[in-house]
């Protein structure tokens, strides 16, 4: 399961994973985002509703609890469903802090089965300047080739940064929200 599209890491992950043959399950916050998730490579899309158990039930239905990897870009609202969808000793990777009272904690939420948690950082992926340069070149090439796509969902002046954050947090936005200097 990979979430969320298409604001950034979710859409990029889904595109790269599906391109490599993975069966991608996307989780979105609104029905209007389902088509965008499918467009970037999700084979299945789950719309998160008010009932968090529904997301878990759908994830289990689609994976049978045998998912190999969960890439979670949302955190608190999706972590339990992602863990339930994993096979024993499956890998769970968060690009946001895991849920818990201490937001920047590395605490792992209680899992129904043993899961191997991972919190990736750039240092994990590029250990020296040459590797970083090569990986950056790959990303820019994929953007030029259309393998990776990014959408701009809105422009905000710096004095509206709080509004941009609230819009992003609401789950109603699609695409990157950019702060524009000098406006």
UniProtKB/TrEMBL annotation:
GO terms for molecular function: mRNA 3'-UTR AU-rich region binding; NADPH binding; quinone reductase (NADPH) activity. InterPro entries: NAD(P)-bd_dom_sf. Keywords: NADP, Oxidoreductase. Pfam families: ADH_zinc_N_2. Gene3D superfamilies: Medium-chain alcohol dehydrogenases, catalytic domain (3.90.180.10), NAD(P)-binding Rossmann-like Domain (3.40.50.720). One of its GO terms (cellular component) is cytosol. This is Zinc-binding dehydrogenase.
